[in-house]
Design a protein that fits this description.
Layout (H helix, E strand, L loop, with lengths): L2 E3 L29 E8 L4 H12 L5 E8 L2 H6 L1 H15 L1 E4 L9 H9 L3 E7 L13 E7 L10 E3 L3 E3 L6 H18 L3 E5 L7 H13 L7 E5 H10 L6 E4 L1 H15 L6 E7 L5 E8 L16 H13 L3 H16 L13 H16 L4
Parallel strand pairs: 1-3, 2-3, 2-4, 4-13, 6-11, 9-10, 9-11
Antiparallel strand pairs: 5-6, 5-12, 7-8, 12-13
Helix pairs in contact: 1-11, 5-6, 7-8, 9-10, 10-11
């Protein structure tokens, strides 16, 4: 099937149904006329090359993929910031999902603006060992970090008090804590694993205590899904020593940021991760989802066919999973990993391929896997 850029007058309808995409039934093949519609947030630096890579992979899928592009580049945001963000908001509210590429932070952080406008309250970052990527660690990582996207210490930049002191407010809210907990337990139920909640609940008794209280309440709704709480500093140490012990971790905002980067460091690269941001309706179902690769705009290599698009492809894989194309999403994840493991990769991982050649190698592996020749 071919990918397509949706015409300017394309007006898709919101995706019906209450069942979150990550709980839909797995299927590896779809009807030939099935179409996936998504918003595509174009950014800066290597954004154009990442988009080209995703489009090349879309060519290999057994479905039609219709991209609705939105220009979120720094140039556009300088000229018409409100227009750019409103267009991005309209697109994802129509389509339900978006794929975002790296953007420059200048006057504001586009990620922060989108999070506030779209009410994203949960971030999901899967981190897994990548065959072929050199690490300084012998353990095997396969962990899902579910992070509250709001509050914590990140919500308030604080203020100076006189010349010798400063203060900021740390906020933990019940609703986003509940959203994160439900997401984590639903994910753990599907994977058949335990949920570990982590914070500094013995020290931050009011704030982190509220978070753990909410997680415990939600845990009671998921009979058969094990759960226990661990202090965050102890968890970091244990994650480094025995990463195999952790499969689903749920945690407040800043703790999730720390543990996500730590886990990525264990597998060998902070820049090879991908994540999803979720907004929920009043019933607690996923309403909007945005998927994006880790890493920045890399202006020093932009336009030179040098960037590694793996994280963008994994973000696309997560989007496919969310929309119910579990077999296809798993196949794409596997295709990227097998291509890296074979040594046919970009220079940052010791290979000799450019961005385009690597994308085509992944597409070749993907077609083979989808054909059942894995």
């Amino acid at each position: 099937m071919k990918y397509a850029t949706c015409p300017p007058d394309f007006q898709p309808q919101p995706t019906p149904g209450r069942i979150p995409g990550f709980l839909k039934a797995e299927h590896a093949s779809m009807a030939a006329n099935e179409t996936l519609d998504l918003a595509e947030y174009l950014g800066d630096g290597i954004s154009a090359e990442l988009s080209a890579s995703v489009h090349a992979i879309a060519e290999a899928l057994p479905i039609d993929v219709c991209f609705s592009p939105v220009d979120l580049s720094l140039e556009r945001r300088r000229e018409d910031p409100e227009g750019a963000y409103q267009e991005a908001e309209d697109a994802i509210r129509h389509l339900g999902v978006a794929l975002k590429y790296p953007t420059v932070t200048e006057a504001e952080s586009p990620n922060k603006v989108l999070r506030e406008r779209l009410d994203f309250s949960v971030i999901h970052r899967p981190v897994a060992t990548i065959p072929g990527v050199a690490t300084r660690h012998q353990g095997t990582v396969d962990v899902h970090i579910v992070r509250i996207a709001v509050g914590g210490t990140y919500e308030d930049a604080g203020r100076r008090i006189g010349s010798e002191a400063a203060v900021s407010v740390r906020v933990i809210e019940r609703k986003p804590s509940r959203h994160a907990a439900h997401f984590a337990f639903q994910l753990a139920r599907r994977l058949g694993v335990e949920v570990v909640s982590t914070s500094k609940y013995t020290i931050q008794r009011a704030t982190d205590g509220l978070f753990e209280e909410v997680v415990a309440e939600v845990a009671a709704e998921y009979e058969g899904v094990p759960h226990h709480a661990e202090l965050f500093d102890a968890l970091l140490a244990k994650l480094i020593m025995r990463p195999e012990d952790y499969r689903v971790i749920v945690t407040p905002n800043e703790y999730g940021d720390f543990v996500s980067d730590a886990a990525c460091g264990i597998v060998g690269s902070i820049g090879l991760g991908a994540s999803a941001s979720y907004a929920f309706n009043r019933r607690g179902d996923v309403q909007l989802a945005m998927f994006d690769p880790a890493g920045g705009t890399a202006p020093d290599i932009a336009g030179q066919d040098l960037c590694n698009p793996s994280a963008a492809l994994w973000a696309f894989s997560m989007l496919l999973n969310h929309k119910g194309y579990r077999g296809v999403g798993k196949a794409l994840n596997k295709a990227v990993r097998e291509t890296i493991a074979s040594g046919r990769t970009t220079r940052d991982l010791g290979g000799e391929l450019g961005t385009e050649a690597f994308s085509q190698a992944v597409a070749t592996n993907l077609r083979r896997i989808l054909a059942g020749n894995s």
